[in-house]
Hints:
By secondary structure, the protein is α/β, with parallel strands linked by helices. It has 8 helices and 11 strands.
Amino acid sequence: MRTLGVIPARLGSTRLPRKVLLDIAGRPMIEWVWRAAAGSGLMDEVVVATDSDEVMTACAARGIPARMTSAECASGSDRVCEVARQVEAEIYVNIQGDEPLLMPEHFQPLLGLFERAEVRVGTVAVPCPAEDVENPNAVKVVMARDGRALYFSRSTIPFDRDGASGQAGGVAAGEAGRVANRVAWWKHLGLYAYRREVLEEFARLRPSALEMAERLEQLRMLENGMEIYVGLAEGDTIGVDTEADRLRVEAVLGQRG
Length: 257
């Protein structure tokens, strides 16, 4: 299956302006994201989708493929959909441009989901660090036994009323989160993959009540009966929304060498 990775990159971020071009350990953030995605070797091409001439210029200087998209795109998914109308593929991967700690290893669990014919939308989760279980900036996901997402939330889900887990953070990805009498918390990463037809279907849907309440775009799919399957991976990331986040990321990249 031809697979296209798309990194939406809007320069006018509200919480941290110009963040996709922020210097992190000597490279703009968007380059770290692109390197991880392209380094997986699982996509035929990985492109940046932006509405900024400055981002286009920065990408060209670094040999990163980029496409200009409309400034009217309301979301990253809308930007991916616009690229999908220009570039033919069977699978489109929406890669958040503010996740510089993504690793090539995060993409195999995502794209491996599409070996199953019933999977139309996929995403990724990692074991949630203890410090993020109650952090509203870390999105949690709960899943059925077949990997279907039941719900995504900024709240702590599941709520471990009687302390059945024994320890915060739950189980490892290799244990698949299905150990008897143990609660597993899973942190959602900003990676999505769509079959072409479902991407168009999603783009036609209006924002939903749950989406607006949680500020989580994926809830629009669940409210409209669209199933999302979750691949499990190892390795936490840090989404960059503040200068403090940027400094934390630099420290991690320094440890990676």
